[in-house]
Design a protein that fits this description.
Helix content is 35%, strand content 22%. The protein contains 14 helices and 17 strands. It is globular and about 95 Å long. Helix 13 links the parallel strand 15 and strand 16. Among the domains are: 137 residues, Rossmann fold, CATH 3.40.50.300; 184 residues, Rossmann fold (3-Layer(aba) Sandwich), CATH 3.40.50.
């Protein structure tokens, strides 16, 4: 197959989750060999569903999906499935193949080298940090050397060095890549086309150019459509006013009035349905427990991990109300492990004052019960258990109607993130512990979240690899685990 040939085509593809959850409505698009394409769309629009349709894990209700004959497809998922967390590294990679692979170890070495990572092959997957697991996910797709590489939020949990290495790899990758990501800078570095999944129309719009080009294109189109509609509305109102005036004069003027009304109706049909842009969550506040005067948490020591070994280090950190601590360090040094031990009270070198409610945002959402409905999850976190308050809070995070009765496990990763933030609002914690809170979140929501964290009046400990996000938040103290 020559470069530039179509390797993937969706032809009038429709797909629904159940009767009340349409995802695609006669979607049409094509992807050419060797192109680097981004899929954009609101949280829950169905971007990951498109990947499942491409791989064949899901089947369309109607329409057809075709790929070039003999082409191979591999996907790097957002998170490692829970059932694979207790596998060794070797067994995790063996699951990528349907047939027996005899030279698996050298293949693993090459795949890990491509993502700039070294991992003992007998180590359990669960023991790696979120950033290290992100590298394993990416390597699990690369080891298959596919013709079409699907990457679902590949920069989540990656530190700056990891993102730079991945970007360089993708620029040099000579095969087709389709990416879902909310990282604008990452996408702009290599994207040459965008597929935009409109959550309202359920259509896929195809654009040439990068992420910035598409946003500019959409904005310009909305402005043009709004201007045209404003002119039409003005003309329609003039025709209606004339019709009323002529109708009141009676006689032959009533025929003129009728023609005026008909003309107004014709003009109304010309009004374009202006694109409904992705909605943004409403500004919100995470209330904190007001009654604490002294330190909320004291940290005297912590552990860092280097060369897969833990080393104890000492420090002297006391956080009171309105004090925010940023934890820094590369992937694998032990940031998430430290946050987990702090949140659970298992850290030997830290003490949380008695009575403090801890709000813990985990990057893998394992604090959520995936069998709960969204409403049950929010109810269990609520300090008041007032249904009206719970539903009003949920609505601010774009959680409406049927979604309240949906199980957490059936939500997209981005929607799980919004539920996790709604839980924090309802919980009213005295100590907020946040591990990569921008992962999976639509870029439109991130400034709103940053503003809420900046205003938070309890004690806060934050881990984030997104400098633009951290810059918007008041940070009083930094603990760099590498130093």
């Amino acid at each position: 197959m020559a470069a530039g040939d179509v390797v993937l085509r969706f032809d009038e593809v429709s797909f629904n989750y159940g009767h009340n959850h349409p995802i695609l409505d006669e979607a049409d698009f094509s992807v050419r060999r060797g192109s680097k394409v981004t899929i954009m769309g609101q949280n829950g629009a169905g971007k990951s569903t498109i990947f499942s349709l491409i791989t064949g894990a899901l089947k369309p209700e109607s329409g057809s999906i075709s790929t070039g004959r003999g082409l191979t497809i591999a996907i790097s998922r957002q998170v490692i499935p829970r059932g694979e967390l207790d596998l060794t590294v070797r067994d995790f990679f063996l699951k990528c193949f349907t047939e027996k692979v005899y030279d698996i170890d050298p293949r693993i070495d090459l795949a890990l080298e491509a993502v700039n990572f070294h991992a003992p092959k007998d180590r359990i997957v669960r023991s790696f940090s979120g950033g290290q697991q992100a590298r394993l996910l990416l390597a699990s797709a690369l080891i298959q050397h596919p013709d079409i590489l699907l990457l679902d939020e590949p920069t989540n949990n990656l530190d700056k060095a990891g993102i730079e290495h991945l970007t360089a790899f993708l620029k040099g990758y000579d095969r087709t890549v389709i990416v879902i990501s909310h990282d604008a800078d990452f996408l702009n570095s290599f994207t040459d086309g965008v597929l935009y999944l409109d959550v309202h129309t359920k259509k896929v719009e195809q654009y040439v150019g990068d992420y910035k080009d598409v946003l500019a294109d959409i904005t310009a189109r909305i402005e043009k459509e709004n201007r045209a509609n404003a002119l039409l509305a003005k003309e329609i109102q003039a025709k209606k006013d004339q019709a009323n005036m002529f109708a009141n004069k009676g006689g032959q003027m009533r025929l003129v009035a009728k023609r005026m009304r008909e003309k107004a109706e014709e003009l109304e049909e010309e009004i374009v349905e202006v694109r409904k842009e992705d909605k943004t969550i409403r500004p919100f506040t995470i209330p904190s427990q007001p009654e604490f005067v002294g330190p909320i948490i004291e940290i005297s020591s912590y552990k860092v991990i280097k060369n897969h070994k833990a080393t104890k280090r000492t420090c002297s950190i006391k956080l009171k109300r309105k004090q925010h601590l940023l934890l820094k360090g590369p992937n694998g040094i032990g940031k998430s492990t430290l946050l987990e031990t702090l949140a659970s009270g298992a850290s030997e070198g830290a003490k949380i004052s008695e009575g403090v409610r801890v709000g813990y945002y985990r990057q893998d959402f394992s604090t959520l019960n995936f069998e709960d409905t969204v409403y049950e999850s929010l109810l269990s976190a609520s300090a008041t258990h007032i249904e009206q308050h719970i539903r009003a809070t949920a609505a601010g995070f774009l959680i409406h109607g049927d979604m309240m009765d949906t199980k957490i496990g059936a939500l997209s990763e981005g929607q799980k993130g919004l539920v996790a933030f709604a839980r924090l609002v309802l919980q009213k914690p005295g100590l907020l512990i946040l591990d990569e809170p921008t992962n999976h979140i639509n870029f439109r929501h991130i400034p709103v979240i940053a503003e809420a964290l900046d205003r938070y009046e309890g004690a806060m400990i934050l881990v984030s690899h997104v400098p633009e996000f951290v810059e918007k938040i008041r940070i009083d103290e930094v603990l760099d685990l590498e130093k």
